[in-house]
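Hello everyone,

My group is preparing for a crystallization screen and wants a predicted model to guide construct design. The compound we'll soak is 2-acetamido-2-deoxy-beta-D-glucopyranose. Before spending weeks at the bench, it would help to have a computed complex in hand. I've included the protein sequence and the ligand's SMILES below. Output in structure-token form would be ideal because that's what our pipeline reads.
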Amino acid sequence: MKLEFVLPEIISKKRKKKESYEMKSFRNSAVRFFLFVGAAIFIVTFAMISVEARKHHSSRNKPHKHLKDKGSHNAPGPAPAPLPHHGSYPTQSIIFDVLSFGAKGDGVSDDSKALLAAWKAACKVSGAVVEIPEKFEFLIKPITLQGPCMPHLVLEIDGILLAPPQVGAWPKSGLFQWLNFKWVHDFTIQGTGKLDGQGSAWWSPSGVYYIQKRFKYNPDMKPTALRFYDSHNVTVRDIKIMNSPQCHLKFDSSSGIKVNNITINSPESSPNTDGIHLQNTKDVEIQHSNIGCGDDCVSIQTGCSNIHVHHINCGPGHGISLGGLGKDKSVACVSDIVVEKISLQNTLSGVRIKTWQGGVGSVKNVTFSNIEVSDVKYPVIIDQFYCDKKICKNQTDAVAISGVKYDKIIGSYSVQPLHLACSNDVPCTDVDLIDIQLNPSSDGFRGFRQALCWNSYGKSQAPLLPSSIDYCLRTESGSVKRIARSHAEHSCPS
Ligand SMILES: *[C@@H]1O[C@H](CO)[C@@H](O)[C@H](O)[C@H]1NC(C)=O
Ligand SMILES: *[C@@H]1O[C@H](CO)[C@@H](O)[C@H](O)[C@H]1NC(C)=O
Ligand SMILES: *[C@@H]1O[C@H](CO)[C@@H](O)[C@H](O)[C@H]1NC(C)=O
Ligand SMILES: *[C@@H]1O[C@H](CO)[C@@H](O)[C@H](O)[C@H]1NC(C)=O
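Reply:
Good plan to model first. Here are the tokens for the complex, ready for your pipeline.
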């Protein structure tokens, strides 16, 4: 798989030269010549702030691995930030190892300052790599790693980053998130390591009580493990994120996001521990990842468009969700969403759209296809009466839902195969149900075998199982479309 970030080609070429130089130990003067030329080009590359460099791509996975042993670990003890020196071995300096910046890596000492220092130094260098080395554990307090930085910055996490385990160790300013990336562009996180939010203390009622007492804070305020804010062209791949106090990976007001081959893991019983949460974020691809957590595996919130989620294993958790949207009469706009080739095991819902009564705005052009469910309570849900309390007031406005296609939803359910509860006042329109084949799960089934559709318009196409899906949707008329359109139009960009 080709990487997004990549070092300038000239550097990897030069690295090859360097290796051959070591093997032949100066025997080949041509190599020396190329080294010299390479170094010169490297300096020029630096000066040219990488608009050019972006065009060069190396296709090697983790191209800097070879370098790791050759220069990055040899700074003894806490050292001042080693600035890249533009001498004969410039490739060494492209790695900014936290150990060289004073990190202990013992899992107990606070290594936040070292990580910040490594980040600051790397940020100034095009194609730099901040290295979290394997076989070490780094305790990191809540921090913000801020851009803008030079292009192609990589955070290579091969070791383990640990969040403070006690609720009391989190400062008030750190309650939003643990690792906060702000204003980063053209940036990659990758590696075989993991982020451990050590969040269990936050999941219990006593943890919530502690926060209320200490911070006089809304108990919903719990840290997200890894958050990106106003960041663009970001890739997160290969890493594992576990046991977050709340959401594991969040993108807020961002664009050009790629998530690939990551693992997210927290217990089914951990409350509100969403896997990946998107908000005001556009142009996203999330793929080939395993997500098991206590809430939505992927949650798509207002302001999101052009989101492609595919090849995800989800479970335990609450499934793939759009919303809840329109809380407290807010405007919600979500469009152009494709969720496909998803496998869900033992989740609350499969694919779900949930909105609060009283909201405005629209959800449109959404496709859910090739969804495999196994023992999922509600494989298909639209819930426009979403309410997190016992009773929510009935209200007339609603986020208008239109153009939702369900194609090939197959497997077993444990409560209800299909549940489309649309607003009394704003119908769901242009809903397509194609090839839905859902059987009650074999053990201990105790639900409803009937599909439910309320104020939902559109068409269905065989095969449909249970057969009640066939006559669930109502046929659209011009007036229904007009009502739906008039609600959808007034608040979202077209
Ligand atoms: C993001 O990438 C796109 C396409 O590669 C490019 O056009 C755009 O300028 C980049 N934006 C930022 C902020 O780096
Ligand atoms: C996925 O990530 C793991 C590390 O977590 C890595 O070993 C593996 O090679 C990656 N797979 C792909 C296809 O990139
Ligand atoms: C619906 O969304 C998909 C995915 O973003 C996009 O390719 C397609 O053009 C959209 N269709 C319409 C009619 O906007
Ligand atoms: C809301 O409306 C439904 C029927 O549309 C009704 O059954 C329910 O009692 C109402 N709830 C409240 C709190 O008024």
